Amino acid sequence: MELQGKTALITGGNSGIGLATARLMLAQGARVAITGRDRAKLDEAATELGGEVLALQADLNNSDDLAAIASAVGKAFGSLDIVFANAGISGPTPLGSTTYEAFRNIVDTNLTAVFFTVQSVLPLLKEGSSIVLNGSVMRELAVGGTAAYSATKAGVTGMAKVFATELAPRGIRVNTVIPGATRTPIWTRGARAGATLDATEAHLAPRIPMGRLAEADEVANAVVFLASPRASGMTAAEIVVDGGTIGAPSGGAIFRG
What we know:
The chain is α/β, with parallel strands linked by helices. The chain is 41% helix and 16% strand. The termini are far apart.
């Protein structure tokens, strides 16, 4: 119960890594607010997590919704100890056939919204608080057709280091978790268009040194560690949960083909 009495906001907390992190933080004693755009999925997640969770429907690209999140969390919790900026989307952006709107949608959601999410709740963060941003190994794997997604995840890493510098005087730590291929809904669009999650894993697993996709709970464990007092000396740091993907001899080619 090392998060007993702590308060946390998790964006994109209605599925995947966000939902797994919410579940673990609640088990560790925290009070948790989650956000999601889909009301039905948000309600389903809230029912699973139980009555202690604050479920907020919001579009993080909407400044009014961000203000509403900050207001609701402030009223419910008074302050925040943890922010996990997890919400993100993927999508193909091949050079030569990508529309401006498709590219911008990914950048707005995965990068711009992360900045303004943190900025909107900054007044609620106490000294000693922790911010964790969700990156991705895709920032360096050079997989064709993923320019927007890969660029945003590289940007998240750089932004986290800047946040860490800016917020160090307030005693607020900022770190990044870097997942590899993980058994979450976003990876149903991972290896091949229209693939199921099991088919995606069958395609990718032989190329991952550990021979399998990560579980969402494994990434959640890293997030909770970074948010916990055990990581009190860590800021501008990263934890990679990728089954050895980045360090594999095949390097960036691991997901090609």
